[in-house]
Amino acid sequence: MPEWGTNETEKEPRRRKIQWCLVFLVMAWYLGALVRVHIYPDRRAVEQLAKQYQQSERKAMDRGSIYDGRGEPLALSITMYSVFLDPGVEGFEPGSLSNLTPYIGKEKVQALGEKLDRRFYWIKRYLERSEAEEIVKNCGKGFYIREERKRIYPKGNMLSHLLGFCDQDGWGLAGIELMWNGTLVVPEKMHTGYRGASVAAGMKRESRNRNDTQGLYLTIDSEIQYAVERFLGAQAAEIKAPWAAGICLETRTGAVKAMASYPVFDSNNRSTFKNLKALSNNAVNRVYEPGSTFKPIMVAMALEQGRVKQSDSFRCPAHLKVADGYISDSHPRDNGVMKVAQIIEKSSNVGMAQIGMKMPPFSTYEEMRSWGIGSRTGIKLNGEEMGLLPTADKWYGITPANVAIGQGFAVTPLQLVTAFNAIVNDGILVRPYLVRSAVDGEGHQVYHSEPMEVNRVVSPRNSKWLRGVLRQVVVSGTGKPADSELVHVAGKTGTAQVARNGKYVKGLYNSSMIGFWPANDPQYTMLIVFGDVTGSLYYGGPVAGSVFKKIVDEVERLKGVGVK
């Protein structure tokens, strides 16, 4: 009888082949899934794992440092440690707040205990690490330490008006810190690591972005700045002047080598911020009538307009009736004849009034505007004022004569020294600037400032002649107190009455000296002004000229210059 089907021995090899094929397919599918997960992971799974095994730490916002022209640090950030409280943490005991009393005081502890409705409270900021660790150790659960960056100013109150200051979170609030905040600030960053690992071992700290600012370099020379601040402040305190300002420019470029304001404050000490008058930078915020320091500029304009010549002479009585008023000299003289140079040397108001009346108001107004009078210099300091220059349609009666002697309009100290500097700089008006360059985190220059010529306002011939006249002001005129034994100085003094509510106040003056040195090859142009001066010592020569001399002598000694 025939056999139907195969026997068991024939079926076994086929069954094994099928089993091995199934095993291979399962393994292939499994390996494929593993590869797919590694190459294209599920986003939700990755986020869930990150929550379970990773933690983030916020790195405090940093700021680039500020340096002077020699590379000396003026503002920098250092690492400090702050303690904060999270009352929502498991294990926090409200009673532990009493342990804070030795560190923040009983009143603050009581106030804190009454409002524990949030998850974050600052306890004490900017501490040494050991002090922060002591607080956390003594207070228990819920208290933590955060690393922060604190802004400090190594030179104390020097340059405080210029640099400004930051708030506690590192944002600029005044001065260069404010105006260049966008360049200086390095935003907060998050650093991710594994839970339970120490910062040193497990935290993956991000590297600084190549565009993070490493430093801002100014044009300031700290040695000149120190001399200006020291002598300006000493004189202001001695004569009890409510305010003062001093500015020194590099003649050819307009680079600010020093900018000082009085009274002062300390950017490191917030308690000094209470004196609001001290926070004002008088070099750019203060507006005042320039008085006789404007006379050389007015003569320059008259020469350029062709209204007077260098050789012209004027009869100068003690008093002169002009339109609806009188102009008088502060030092009355006989009805002598004075040349234009002598009018400047002796600071004759009567002589200058006659020159001013020769000049058409509309063309004079436009020319003053071209010198920068009535306009901001654009130096990028907060609160810079425009000054005050009435339009020419309001120049009636005695106004042209008043303008010629520096009255009837107002300037800032920076505006005035910038305009005067054009006479010294062969007639070319240059824009003042404070920031030379900025570099990023890798040392690459990301900003650079070049000297900027605005326009020519005086011919080289008239500029040279005026520089000679201004030298004679110091040799034999009102500027004698500014003369130095180390270098030839040239300049002009000013003693201006102070106006209040449209009237000049008797016995209240602004005393100033504006000038340059060396007279034959100018390197520096400087203005020193003391405001609202009272008492018997108020003339520009003795008050401001003497300070001018001290600063010049100090700078020249620092340069190692011998007797001329």
In short:
The chain has 564 residues and is α+β, with helices and mostly antiparallel strands. It has 2 domains: 60-189 and 208-218, Penicillin-binding protein 2a (Domain 2), CATH 3.90.1310; 222-266 and 281-559, Beta-lactamase. The chain is built from 20 helices and 24 strands.
Task: List the keywords.
alpha+beta; Penicillin-binding protein 2a (Domain 2); 7-stranded mixed sheet; 5-stranded antiparallel sheet; 20 helices
Q: Name the CATH superfamily assignment of the largest domain.
A: DD-peptidase/beta-lactamase superfamily
Total count of domains: 2
Overall residue-averaged pLDDT value: 87
Count of discrete alpha- or pi-helical segments spanning 4 or more residues: 20
Biggest β-sheet: count, sense, barrel? Answer: 7 strands, mixed
Compute the number of strand runs: 24
What distance separates the N and C termini?
143 Å
Helix content: 25-40%
Principal-axis shape: elongated
Broad structural category: alpha+beta
Tell me the CATH topology of the largest domain: Beta-lactamase
Low-confidence region ranges: 1-5, 49-57, 191-211
CATH architect. name of the largest domain: 3-Layer(aba) Sandwich
Name of the top-level CATH class of the largest domain: Alpha Beta
Percent in strands? 25-35%
**Oligomerization:** single chain
Radius of gyration: 36 Å
